[in-house]
Write a structure and sequence with these properties.
This protein has 192 residues and is mainly alpha-helical. 38% of the residues lie in helices and 6% in strands. It has a domain of 128 residues.
């Protein structure tokens, strides 16, 4: 596992948000090695987990969904969130705009949110951005996603700012001012 020292601080942080994290066999057959989601609860197996940052990324997908829907989320978070939107999209219905945003911007938000958590906890970004993470092939130096966020051109911080979870930053600082301290400082860690 890359950066095993980050495991317990990350698990404690995620649990502190009110999200369940359990160790054991529930982690089998997940979207990523060593991690799976059942009814909004993250299950992990430290023996097969590639890095603790994967926990944050999956938690990041969950936190951009209103808490009342968390029990409906499982292994394929994107499909589950799309299913929730579809249920609310019948004639005369308007789907929850927070769910729509989670469908459209969830990946970017989860990546930026994870970066902010690692920064907040004082952990090395390499526990999130490690060789092979985010399906990035060989590279030299800083992981391309980490560089993208740090250069201020990743859309995730913008999406988090639009959700009033952080302030505008980087290239997107010109797009608005919500009065919040700029990313990576987070004013709140969940959408509700």
């Amino acid at each position: 596992m890359h950066h095993p020292e980050a495991l317990e601080p990350i698990v404690a942080f995620v649990r502190g948000l009110g999200m369940g994290v359990e160790y054991g066999e529930g982690a089998r057959d997940g979207f990523l090695p060593g991690i799976n989601i059942h009814a909004g609860v993250i299950h992990i197996d430290p023996d097969t987990l590639l890095a603790p940052g994967d926990i944050l990324h999956e938690a990041g997908h969950i936190i951009v969904v209103p808490r009342r829907y968390w029990p409906r989320l499982g292994r394929d978070l994107q499909a589950d969130i799309e299913g929730l939107v579809a249920e609310q999209s019948g004639e005369g219905q308007t789907p929850d705009p927070l769910l729509v945003r989670a469908v459209q911007q969830g990946e970017q938000m989860a990546t930026a949110w994870s970066y902010a958590v690692v920064h907040h906890l004082g952990l090395p970004q390499e526990c999130l951005f490690f060789p092979g993470s985010y399906r990035v092939g060989p590279y030299e130096g800083v992981h391309p996603f980490q560089a993208w966020i740090e250069q201020g051109s990743h859309f995730g911080p913008l999406c988090l700012a639009q959700a009033d979870m952080t302030g505008y930053s980087g290239l997107f600082a010109y797009m608005g001012n919500n009065g919040l301290p700029p990313f990576p400082h987070m004013t709140r860690w969940t959408v509700d």
